[in-house]
Amino acid sequence: MNILMPQLGETVAEGKITTWFKSIGDAVKPGDNLFEIETDKVSMEVPATAAGVLEEIRVAVGEVAPVGAVVAVLSGAAGIAAAPMAKTLEPAPSRIAPRTPIVLPTLPTIPLRSARPIMLDPFREVRTPERNYGPAKLPSGAAVTPLARRLAAESGIDPGRVTPSGPHGRIVARDIEAAVAARANEPGHGPAARSPDRIKVHYEPGSYEEIPLDGMRRTIAARLIEAKQTIPHFYLTADALTERLSALREEANAAALPGENGKPAFRLSINDFIIKALALALQRVPAANAVWAEDRILRFRRSDVGVAVAIDGGLVTPVIRGAEKKSLLEISAEMTDLSARARERKLKPAEIQGGVTAISNLGMHGVREFAAIINPPHATILAVGAVARRPVEAADSSVRFASQMTVTLSCDHRVIDGALGAELLAAFRHFIEHPVGLMI
Length: 440
What we know:
It contains ten helices and 21 strands. With 440 residues, it is an alpha+beta fold. Helix 1 packs parallel to helix 2 and helix 7 (270-284) packs across helix 9.
């Protein structure tokens, strides 16, 4: 029986084995943990699905294997081990009796009256399902076919600088493709331009340490480039008074009774209030509780809020699901558990997938304000700065010092327009400044 590298998420392509719990020759029972794998986001123990003897280990500790690769062989069991989270459904036996096949009569062949040859225009390119409405003229007088014009726009090539090779001096697709290939060989383009040697040449040898990228760092880099290049970000910033929230939090924490270890049974953080406030704000502004799905918008009933957690080498964003219906104590306990397991890379794939928005809080590091990059497929992310005392103008034009925090909402303009984003931010600010509503 072949043991396969399991699939631990839609975007996970490989995993690294960090521990083997069984050795060659060991007996294995269903449910016994065979090995532990680590991906760019999580670590997980993989159990056996059948009984047998571990006959062969093909992927050693520290080695990486793609999803679906054979990592071990279990003797005495038939079949291939099913990967976790990828259950195979056996077809149910058919209860319908086989029917007698129906024989259709042979129809007579009707000869065509005539077969005129179909003449193709040799000057027309048929490369895509697009209809060709004829070539466009450049100021120079050269004609550009529609396909070549589209390829030039996509690749950033100026057709006016391309030498035509098509019939009657037309610029055709192959001319644009040749120009793209030629540009790749120019200085500053092509694989050499992306080589680390191109960067290292600017620095004195021995003055730096080279740190290879692990799977998490590569994934973060790829997703952030994708987010900034494909999501039209815009940013909304507001200040929220936090005096009432701080007072309510202190009173709640002071009322916590000692637990079995003598420590308070709970301790609410500012972040717990922020999670609940954003969840309720999404319920108050349901049009913003949505994500972009290419040819449509998905609007959700629950407020599933992700929270960025910094870990060694990067960050992960576990999701608090249905946060609008959970109490502050429930959110606090769940967030404590998720954060601890995130730092140990013990989160399950389902715990970091989905969600409609996220919170990134750098206030504990003294950052006053910042703008965060949206984490696809989310449509928003809330960047939270530090709470600080600042001068505030009162209604009677007097000035006093009050505790405030600055928050910046990054929005995907495909899903959320400016007015809608402002409405969501105003609702969040209301719950922060009137925190009694978060206790209900």
